């Protein structure tokens, strides 16, 4: 059962899967949720990568060179007391070793500073995206969950219909054996039972497919069994009165954060106009001689060091930076247009969800009254049939009508729950399905 695979705060020893438990399981096990959380984790590493550029950069290097033929340079012999002659002199030694440590530090780099600020916003972007992924997963799980519930309710309805028709068949069988009823009526009842059994098998097959879809939606192994609690759908008409604020929607927050990142991208382009200043330094040790200079006491060694400042001042690059800034402005404008369009779409979805809730409430109410009326008609028809005042056809028709009324009610309840999910989503409260 499900209890064998749920741990921690989930099912423990229970054998039923509630909507809240299904959502929690999905948020912990579904691939989309795991990947979104990994993106949040990875965003911190991106911040670390950008921050590293503001820290000192230290590198060490070493080299060993052997010069079989040392290049000679020409000197004026007059410098050495031999006027009129050219003297060829070799500068250097055959062997040369070098070890150096270099340090560089950014003192002013506008692009780097902008990147540090953008990295923080990038992390916030992935955090919002993780929240949006969770909400999308919750919506998908809730819809799949209620579809399984509808199959369960349809199965219960057809079982009730089978039970009633079977009772009628058993009564007819006794009457036929006593010679008080025609066998054709018994046969017609058997046909009705067989039809109901065929319908039941179809529902069982559909239920298995829906259960598999639910397991996949929450990331559960398909081989596991799930059992839904035996309860009816709640209908809450007060949901329509809840205030809708499009600014609370995660989709809006995500797009706003995207615009913020585009603004940082623009600032990064503008930073190309700023000069940059960095400090460099090195400390080295050089050895040279006629023989291999390492571990050689006859070799000569000399330390050296240097400290400097590097200043880079952009003067003219043909308008490349201006073109990049203009492109960044266009990208920001397009993102703002997308944001306004998204808000219009979300407002439309909210109004549609409210309308669907209203219609679903009316349909549920009508179907409930219809179920009660169909039940009264079936009971009266059964009583009339026992007293010879109704035909078998009327009896079977009343039982089918009662089953149809129950199925219609189940379908309207499912439609209500789907509309309810959309309204909860429109109000930005899908997370409440986890904590309800």
Automatic annotation (TrEMBL):
InterPro entries: OMP_efflux, TolC-like. It comes from the Bacteria. Pfam families: OEP (PF02321). Keywords: Cell outer membrane, Membrane, Transmembrane, Transmembrane beta strand, Transport. The keyword Transmembrane helix does not apply. It is found in: Cell outer membrane. Belongs to the outer membrane factor (OMF) (TC 1.B.17) family. PANTHER family: OUTER MEMBRANE PROTEIN TOLC. This is TolC family protein. It comes from Sphingobacterium kyonggiense.
């Amino acid at each position: 059962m499900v209890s064998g695979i749920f741990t921690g705060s989930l099912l423990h020893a229970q054998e039923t899967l509630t909507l809240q438990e299904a959502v929690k399981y999905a948020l912990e096990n579904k691939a989309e949720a795991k990947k979104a959380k990994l993106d949040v984790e990875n965003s911190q590493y991106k911040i670390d990568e950008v921050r590293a550029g503001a820290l000192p950069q230290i590198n060490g290097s070493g080299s060993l060179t052997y010069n079989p033929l040392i290049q000679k340079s020409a000197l004026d012999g007059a410098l050495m007391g031999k006027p009129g002659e050219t003297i060829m002199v070799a500068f250097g030694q055959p062997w040369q070793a070098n070890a150096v440590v270099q340090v560089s530090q950014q003192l002013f780099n506008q692009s780097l500073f902008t990147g540090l600020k953008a990295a923080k916003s990038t992390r916030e972007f992935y955090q919002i995206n993780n929240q949006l992924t969770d909400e999308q997963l919750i919506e998908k799980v809730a819809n799949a969950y209620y579809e399984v519930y509808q199959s369960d309710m349809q199965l219960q309805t057809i079982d009730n219909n089978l039970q009633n028709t079977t009772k009628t068949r058993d009564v007819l069988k006794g009457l036929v054996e006593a010679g008080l009823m025609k066998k054709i009526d018994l046969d017609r009842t058997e046909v009705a039972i067989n039809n109901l059994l065929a319908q039941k098998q179809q529902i069982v097959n559909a239920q298995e497919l829906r259960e598999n879809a639910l397991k996949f939606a929450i990331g559960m192994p398909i081989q596991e069994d799930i059992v839904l609690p035996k309860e009816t759908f709640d209908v809450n008409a007060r949901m329509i009165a809840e205030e809708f604020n499009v600014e609370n929607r995660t989709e809006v927050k995500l797009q706003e954060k995207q615009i913020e990142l585009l603004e940082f991208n623009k600032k990064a382009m503008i930073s190309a106009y700023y000069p940059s200043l960095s400090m460099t330094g090195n400390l080295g040790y050089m050895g040279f001689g006629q023989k291999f200079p390492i571990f050689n006491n006859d070799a000569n060694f000399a330390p050296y060091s240097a400290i400097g400042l590097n200043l880079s001042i952009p003067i003219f690059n043909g308008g490349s930076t201006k073109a990049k800034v203009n492109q960044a402005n266009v990208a920001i404008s397009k993102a703002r247009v997308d944001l306004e369009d998204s808000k219009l779409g979300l407002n439309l979805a909210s109004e549609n969800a409210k309308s669907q809730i209203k219609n679903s409430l009316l349909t549920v109410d009508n179907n409930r009254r219809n179920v009660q009326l169909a039940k009264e008609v079936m009971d009266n028809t059964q009583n009339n049939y026992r007293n010879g005042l109704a035909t078998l056809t009327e009896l079977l028709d009343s039982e089918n009508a009662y089953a149809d009324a129950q199925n219609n009610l189940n379908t309207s309840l499912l439609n209500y729950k789907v509309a309810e999910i959309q309204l909860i989503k429109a109000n930005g409260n899908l997370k409440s399905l986890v904590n309800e």
